[in-house]
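Regression check, 2-acetamido-2-deoxy-beta-D-glucopyranose case 345:
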Amino acid sequence: MGPEVLRPCLLLLWIWVCALPAGSVLPSEISKAEMTRMFKDFMIQFNRTYRNPAEQRRRFGIFTRSLLTAQWLQETELGTGQYGVTRFSDWTDEEFQGMVRSSPPPTMHQASRLPRKKLPPSCDWRKAGAVTAVKDQGKKCNSCWAFAAVANIESLWNIHFHQPRNLSVQEVLDCSWCGAGCKGGYVWDAFTTVLQRSGLTSEDAYPYTGRQKTCRNLSEPAAYIQGFQTLPGDEEEIAAHIATKGPITVTLNSAAMKHYKKGISQPLVKSCSPDHVDHVVLLVGYGHAEKRRYWIIKNSWGEGWGEKGYYRLYRGRNTCGITMFPITATVTRVGSPGHEVHCPT
Ligand SMILES: *[C@@H]1O[C@H](CO)[C@@H](O)[C@H](O)[C@H]1NC(C)=O
Ligand SMILES: *[C@@H]1O[C@H](CO)[C@@H](O)[C@H](O)[C@H]1NC(C)=O
Ligand SMILES: *[C@@H]1O[C@H](CO)[C@@H](O)[C@H](O)[C@H]1NC(C)=O
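Current build output:
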């Protein structure tokens, strides 16, 4: 691998995104007294204590602005998404997403377009038992890129070998080639790391601690990959890939996710710019309901966030920049390359 591969490592993705919420849906107008009551409830529900009264006032101000943002998202929502108090409600936008700039992954592994066929109307790999439980990356570590990459490998491994596996996110964090760890990183760096280490250990053998530590070399990989590829940034192509190969990782703008409770989220472009992607997740399928097409997204903020840890996002208009960097590992069984798999509808 030449220096052109290393260079993107230097432009780190700072993803201050990664944690977990739950809470109430907003009333349409909130008085000061009501806001104070909601803040008190929030402090109890999310176990908040602040250093001093000044800090508490500052956090109350942030909380108020968050709720106004959630209210704006609710009023301008084009889909059925619902927004409100979440565990991020007292976080500033800088705390939530202090991203610098993302640079594209190396272009050498570009996948070719799939032949155009009629796609199944829906696809949900969870129904095949091919998606592991939703994990929680914790509040202090921007490791969504590692969680999404590992979840991608877990699902592909399950689809091709019918073996459920929880794989080690910590190994990716500790041993990643770029070494960014909890400061945020790249999915392709996670895959490069797994390739260089000839596989990935199980979660049980190398458990998640939420902090970057010294890389350990354990002998027994629990799964391995053949390579990875970036996919064309086109939602039809992405759906075709998911239906015929399995879940993939995508990078998107998490602005609406900060306040998301449930439903099919479809924020205005100006509320969720497709040019500012800052969070990495796993697309595990797609569907449609109430005449709306959506993506099914596995997040890494625990089961308490969103729809039991999942997010449904409008599909078809590059909402929140979901087509920016679709990328997936490749897992094939020796002796059966090109083996077709079918996603449950
Ligand atoms: C609440 O926070 C305090 C201090 O941060 C911690 O000691 C305690 O265990 C937390 N309680 C719960 C239920 O999370
Ligand atoms: C994976 O971890 C989850 C908890 O996160 C657990 O319920 C499940 O049984 C584990 N699966 C395997 C195959 O170890
Ligand atoms: C782990 O293995 C790599 C490559 O095989 C080696 O460079 C590194 O020093 C090893 N680390 C430890 C802690 O043994």
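Comparison notes: The CA atoms of residues 22 and 304 lie 6 Å apart. The longest strand covers residues 279-289. No diff flagged against the previous build.
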